[in-house]
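From the shared-data thread, chain only:
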Amino acid sequence: MMTLMKWLALLLTLPLAASTVRIYVANSAGNDVTVIDPVENKAVGSITVSNNPHGIVASPDCSRFYVSSETDNVLDVVERSTSKVIRRVPIGKRPNNLAITHDGQRVYVCIREESWVDIVDTASLEKVKSVPVGKNPHNVYATPDGKHMIATSMGENKLTVISTATEQPEFSIPVGGVPRPVAIDAGPDGKINRLFVQLSNLHGFVVVDYNSRVVVDKMKLPDAPPGAQPLIPNTYSHGMGIAPDHKTLWVCSLLDNSVTVYSMPTLHRLTTIPVGKGPDWLTFTPDGARCYISNAGADSVSAIDVASRKELTRIPVGKVPKRIISVELP
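Structure, as tokens:
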């Protein structure tokens, strides 16, 4: 009979079980979320939600997903184990993107037709508060240290920084145009150095110094073909993200149907990669090996190998895919 010590020694020689990663993309012109397996690079499931899903975020323990419905004015609470909606929380008119606090207790949802962010308590599954952030809020992000949320105001050309402790605005940052997606450049300690902000009618993005709260630079994407028109009016560049190793910034172009890769922290352009029509949002697998880009005008998702910076395939999904996230499941 094998002794306890020999059994333990054998266990130590066995490979650790790999976690499962899935990509979730909200199909904004339908009522579903497509589930993609990044190993096989194909759709492996679908979650039925309310009409016109906009934002999607996972709880920290991955037991739930929260999905905003832009036309039904609800926040869907999806149980991951069953892929079923267990609650539709009534919220404000035309909810857009959302974010969750690091402790998973609150979900912040931008209410596009108003001037505030609704806060939903994840224990009671009720809206408990509205925080003013300026007209037509569109996107909201949790800061890496978990102490703040950053909300964009399309109607007032600014970002509003909210304390997650007090659930009150602390300060705002003017960005000189209509803010769209934002990428947060932070150090290993979670301290924010810069914000990269895409603006309406700008084929590129601006750089905000977070400490001084001012725009310090403007970066232009490579020129698009003559006469090119974006899939979404006035939206030339939409969707950006910093790779997990923090060495590159990836920025989508709706004018050029491509994603441009910049070095970090210098913002030197490294390459531009063609993708499908209307690239709108992107996400990376946790290990940084793949980048997935939702092609809103092609009902597909581009899978890109980060090391070679080559498109591997385009995965068919639902109607007008936009918000896309990568989740490491327990």
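Residues 1-17 have pLDDT under 50 and may be disordered.
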